[in-house]
Structure formats: C-alpha cells, structure tokens
Amino acid sequence: MKIGNVDIKGYASLAPMAGVADRAMREICEKYGAAYAVGELTSAKALTLGDKKSTMFLERGNLKVFANQLFGGEPQTMAEAAKIAESFGPDFIDLNMGCPAPKVANNGGGSSLLRDPVLVGKIVRAVKDAAKVPVTVKIRIGWDKDSINAVEIAKIIEASGADAITVHGRTRAQMYAPPVDIASIKAVKDAVSIPVIANGDVVDGISAKKMYEETGCDFVMVGRGAMGMPWVFDKINAYMERGEILPDPPLEKRLEIMMEQLHLMEKYKSQRTVLLESRKHVAWYLKGVRNAAKLRRLCGEIDSLSDIEIICEKALESGEDI
Ligand SMILES: Cc1cc2nc3c(=O)[nH]c(=O)nc-3n(C[C@H](O)[C@H](O)[C@H](O)COP(=O)(O)O)c2cc1C
User: Fold this and answer.
1) What average pLDDT does this structure show over 152-177?
2) Is residue 192 pLDDT above 90, yes or no?
C-alpha cells in the first residue's frame, strides 16, 4: 500500500491508543512486524498554545514509519497544529474523527465530526493545504446505528484531498461493543479510490485475512489485539504471506518481550509514570498464565522494575494455563 508517496510494506499497523500505544509499545510492535504505528491522539489546540506535554506525543523515536494523530474541530487550528506536528518529522499526519471520549467529542473533535460532514471537508482541506506530508483520516462508521454515514463522510474526505482513510467498523454509540460492521467498511472501500485501512477486532492471522477478504481493504489496523501481544503482527504477516499459523511464543519469551517493553518505557518516561503504567501492560502479558489474577494483584505493590522480574519468576513457576 502507498499512503501518498510513503511505501507501506507488510499487512498490519498498530492503532493509535491513548495511554497504551506509547513510544515503547510502538517500538516493540514494529520489532515484531507492525508496518507502521500511529501516535496517541494529540490536541491541536494544545499544540498551537505551545503545550509542552502535548509535543511529547509527537516524538517518532526510531520508528521506520510513523504518523502523528491530531484531534480538534477548527480547520485553522488543525492546519496550524499540522505544521507543528510536521516539524517532528512524521511520515504522515492522521486526523481523528472517531474518538468517542467526552473530553474530545464534546469539544467539537473526534466522533462528533461525523455529525457535521461539511466541517469534516473543511478540516481535511485546511490540513492538506498546510501540510507537506500525506494526510489520513480515521473515522468510525457513524454516530449511532440510525445515522451510519461512513460512505458519505469517506467521499467528502477523499474529495477534500486526503491520502487514505482508516475505518473503525463501529458507531460512536457502540464504543467497543461487538459486532464490527464489515458491510460498512466494504461500502467505504467500494466508494472511494484512496487506500482504505480496516480496523476492528483483528487479533490474529485468521481474523486479518477475513477482514481483507470480506471488505477488500488495502490494509488492516490492530488495536487491542496488540496489548501484551506485540508478536500479533508477526502472526498476521506469516498467515497472510504463507498461510502459516505461528504459535504464541513460549511464556519465558513472552515475559522477556514484556521486560524489553518496560525497559524501553523507562528510557522515555519518569520512574513514577513507568511504575503506574507498567501495571496494565503486565496484566495483559500475563494472560494465559496460571494464577494470573494473583500475580496481577502483586503488580499493585511494585516499587521498581526488579519487582516485576520477581513476578516473572513466579509466573514461570506457575506455568501456562492450558
Ligand atoms: C485504550 C484505547 C485508546 C485509544 N485511543 C485512540 C486514539 O488515541 N486515537 C484513535 O484514533 N483511536 C483510539 N482508540 C481506538 C483504536 O485505535 C481502535 O480504533 C479500536 O480499539 C478498535 O480496534 P481494535 O478492535 O483492534 O481494538 C483507542 C482504543 C483503546 C482501547
């Protein structure tokens, strides 16, 4: 797939996930086969007001292919923010038009834009005029089940100059509940000629292939399926390339990858933040371990990453829950 002039190899990308897919997770996912990663959503308004914390979200680190994601509801602010983001060297800029969080949607950004197609067009056009790098847009299929308008929105996004569109096959009202609306993603693919990246419940090679086959999409994007499982991308690549179903790595290797991610996190974040945030990642990595609940409780008491090494030893003693 090509996004503007950017060549994208492989089969799946890491979804933007605020508070989860941070620089460390993005780098680990790339190492295990993610074709590109999109950074955590970043407030266009905060960027234009010079907020230092927001610029932290823009750092690409060592990633080969990386996009910054911006949210906001004012074309001019989004255009100015795109120029700031561009100075951090992303391969492309993604605009969030799907986030259901009240903090975003109640301020005219994210999924609330799905109810204002004219404004969608103005935002995409303003950012395209301002940015030198390609521009993509990530949407949900509509506000709720009575107002599914992904095709209308996608056509406007394409006509306003966007280089690709990512469709999360759920409505805003659905949040993360099943099912993913495959037909709506396919309808978008049939309606536009820019690349369509399909997103929603892809968790392994089989679900990725199904998404490709049933929607005709150009690429797939994985969110929650990569939590505590960055090797999901290797699994997808192996299945798509040669129909091979790779097993999950053995527990010891999984814990080693977890520690690798946490040590990367230590490089990029304060010790306090690492301790707070590592708990959820450890909990995800412990999936499938016998006595996982007990081990997860221990995570509440950790004071340093060496405490997590002890939890790893206990996990290895417990073994896998098969
Ligand atoms: C914790 C969390 C944070 C998220 N943050 C963002 C975000 O910053 N920007 C965005 O466009 N989508 C965000 N999403 C949505 C995901 O990118 C993705 O569209 C959604 O999880 C569906 O894909 P999945 O079924 O593979 O998880 C977030 C999802 C989760 C679970």
Assistant:
1) 98
2) yes
Distance 200 CA to ligand 1 centre (A): 9
Handedness of CA 159, 160, 162, 163 (dihedral sign): positive
- Angle (nearest 5°) at CA 31 between 28 and 32: 90
CATH classification of 2-242, choosing from 3.40.50.150, 3.20.20.70, 3.40.47.10, 3.40.50.720?
3.20.20.70
Q: CA 193, 194, 195, 200 torsion: positive or negative?
A: negative
Domain ranges for the chain, please list them: 2-242, 251-318
Percent residues over pLDDT 90 in the chain? 91
> Domain 251-318 belongs to what topology?
1.10.1200
**Is the pLDDT reported for residue 261 higher than 80?**
yes
pLDDT value at residue 94: 98
Identical fold, 2-242 and 251-318: no
Task: Verify whether ligand 1 is closer than 6 Å to residue 223 (CB atom).
Answer: yes
Joined together, the tokens standing for residue 20 give 């989860």
Q: Are 17 and 209 in contact (CB under 8 A)?
A: no
Predicted local distance difference test score (pLDDT) of residue 20? 98
Q: Which of 29, 99, 217, 299 is catalytic?
A: 99
310 alpha carbon – ligand 1 mean position (Å): 31
Condensed to tens digits (0 to 9), the pLDDT of residues 72-111 reads: 999 999 999 999 999 999 999 999 999 999 989 888 999 9
Judged against a pLDDT cut of 90, whether residue 150 lies above it is answered with yes
Average pLDDT over the chain, rounded to an integer: 96
218 lines ligand 1 (CB under 6 A): no
Predicted local confidence at residue 208, as pLDDT: 98
Decide if 26 contacts 61 (C-beta within 8 A): yes
